[in-house]
Structure formats: structure tokens, C-alpha cells
Amino acid sequence: MKNILSGIQPTGDLHLGNYFGAVQNWVRLQDAYECRFGVVDYHSMTMPYKAEQLRENTWKMAFYLLACGIKPENLFVQSLVPEHVELAWVLGCLTSYGELTRMTQFKDKSDQLRETDKESLVSAGLFLYPVLQAADILIYHADYVPVGKDQEQHLELSRNIAQRFNYQFGKEYFVHPEPLFTETPKILSPADPNKKMSKSLGEKHYINLFGDEDRVRKQIKSAVTDTGDTPSGEMSPGVKNLFELLRACNNLAAHDALMGDYQAGALKYSDLKEAVADTIVSLIHPLRERLAELNADKRNVKAQIQDSSVEIRKRAQQTMREVRELTGLLNLK
Ligand code: AMP
Ligand code: TRP
After folding, report:
1. Does residue 220 contact residue 273 with C-beta atoms inside 8 Å?
2. I need a labelling partner for 118 at 20 to 30 A (CA). Which of 10, 221, 253, 307 fits?
3. What pTM was computed for the model?
4. 109 is catalytic
5. Res 274: pLDDT
6. 107 among known catalytic residues
7. Domain ranges of the chain
8. Which of 4, 35, 43, 76 to mutate to test the pocket of ligand 2 (most atoms within 8 A of CB)?
9. What's the half-sphere exposure (Cβ side, CA atoms, 13 Å) at 240?
10. Looking at the domain 3-184+298-327, which fold is it?
């Protein structure tokens, strides 16, 4: 069976963009592939953070993923598999400084720190981030990596590193991982449909998957529909986004009926918004219930995540033993 690896940073909330762009796809892939999904907490140390907050967010994200339908045995916490970091060191020694300076995510994030007068916090860790990501993928010999388009460059780097390792050590050892992109287009911010839904823009710009249902209704109700700058005859980005949400939630009946109204010039935005709010609330309601069940059994659920991390770690340890052999390091007998 082909195998899959993906990761998500423990950033606090999970929003509809993350769900439709990533997590929903992961849940479906579990039926057809051997899957491993990591909450990548080492990655979250690359930007300024607080220790207690990181630990809390890591557990939170793991619980969210389980509530969404990720199977416990497929889930691990990256820092419980420290071999990722060991492999990142080995791979880092095969990666050129020049190619890391070309990574756009590094440029974006270091610019972000510079713009807020935090240049001194642009860390070597942030620079090495893509190498750690390559290690995440290669350590399990993953065939496919489901990610957003923004990760294309990192995936290409992972393939280059794999190729270089194989050439240098004379063996077709690492698989060349391929990205699996989702078909869902970027979900946009309800408050500013010229931008993508994202946590970094602030609270009104994302819809929390585990958020309060009244708040979700309010956010949809006040979603921007017409920005006034859409050429006549074209659908505005805000309206398009609302239709996209109906489609993403698989409410095709409402989508098609309302699209019929739109084409007939008879669409009432209030009807569209009501349909979207109802659809989203019925999507998130069972997820919230599932999360409440998991939270009621917190200790056991945490123990289960630790056990599955230990189990998944065995595969990573096997890879590291082989990598040590191939690269001239020592192994304990
Ligand atoms: P991030 O939190 O931005 O690192 O994203 C985590 C995952 O969610 C990645 O696979 C992204 O591609 C996906 N994602 C984030 N924001 C959106 C969005 N607005 N629409 C669709 N997918 C998204
Ligand atoms: N860099 C990814 C992101 O920002 C997260 C990530 C870390 C990842 N390691 C990974 C994704 C390995 C896929 C595979 O979304």
C-alpha cells in the first residue's frame, strides 16, 4: 500500500480553510493509503512563541484532528519522534545554503519579523525549516504528501534532497515524494474576500471550525458580498466564496438552486447567507460534539496519542539506523 505523510503546525484554532484545504482530505485518504499525520510542534519553534502556549496548542490540535475523523493510530506528535530532528541534521548537511535562501516561506516569514522590528528573531531554525520538513517526509519513505499549493517549493526541495542523498551514498534509498494538492480553491476571509481565510489576519478573518454556532451565524450574516469593485456581469469574490462554501460542504442542492436564482438575477444575498450558515452549522455541530466527548476523556485520549506516537516512532528509528549505516555514523549494537 502506498503511504502518506502530512503535517500541520499547532497554531491554536483550526479554521474552515484548514479543514477544506487539508484536514477533510486527510480524513478521506485514510481509506486508501497507509497514513501518518503529525502535529509538527518542532516547526512551531521557528517563530517567537511561549512554552506553555505551544504545549497547550499541540494537544489542542491533536484533539481537533481526532474530532475531525483522523484515526488515533495515524496521528503523532512530532516532538515525540525526535529522530525527525536527527535526520534533519543529516539532510541539512546535504542542502546548500543558496537553495534555502530561495525558499519563499522563509523570505515571507523573515520579512514579517523584520517589518515588526524583530530582525534579531529571524532564527537559524526558521532558515532550516524546509530541511526539517524534508526529514518529516523522508523518514517514513512517504510516497505522497497532501499539502496546499503554498508548499510546492518545500516538496520540490524534499525531492532534491532525497535524490542527492541517494546519489551521494550510492543507493536508491529514499523515495521521491509527490505532492497531492486538494481541489478546493482557497477559502477567502468573510470580512475581506480579497484575502484568503487566515488566522494571522485576525479573528474576523477566519471561521473557527470548533467555534460557537451563534458566532458562526453572525460572521456569515455580516460577510462582505459586494466590494463595489467587481466589473458588472461578474460574480464578486465574496459571493463566489459563499457559493464555494456550499460546494465544499457538499450541499449541492442548495448550491444549484441558489446559483439558478443568481443566473436569473433574482438572488437574495440574505437567502444565500442563511443557507451557508445552516450548512456550516450542521457540518460543525457533530465535530463539536465529538470534541466534547474527547475532552471528557482527556487523560485516556492523551495516552492514546502518546502510544500511537511511540508506535510510529519505531518506523522512524528503523530509518535512522539505516541512515546511520549509509552515512558513516555509528550504531549501538
Ligand atoms: P496554515 O495554517 O496556513 O499553515 O495551513 C495549514 C493547512 O491548511 C495547509 O495545508 C494550507 O494549505 C491549508 N489552508 C490554510 N488556509 C487555507 C485557506 N484559506 N483555504 C484553503 N486551505 C487553506
Ligand atoms: N510546512 C507545512 C505548512 O506550513 C507544515 C508541515 C511541516 C508539513 N512538515 C510537513 C506538511 C511535512 C507536509 C509534510 O503547512
Report:
1. yes
2. 10
3. 0.95
4. yes
5. 98
6. no
7. 3-184+298-327, 199-293
8. 43
9. 15
10. Rossmann fold (3.40.50)
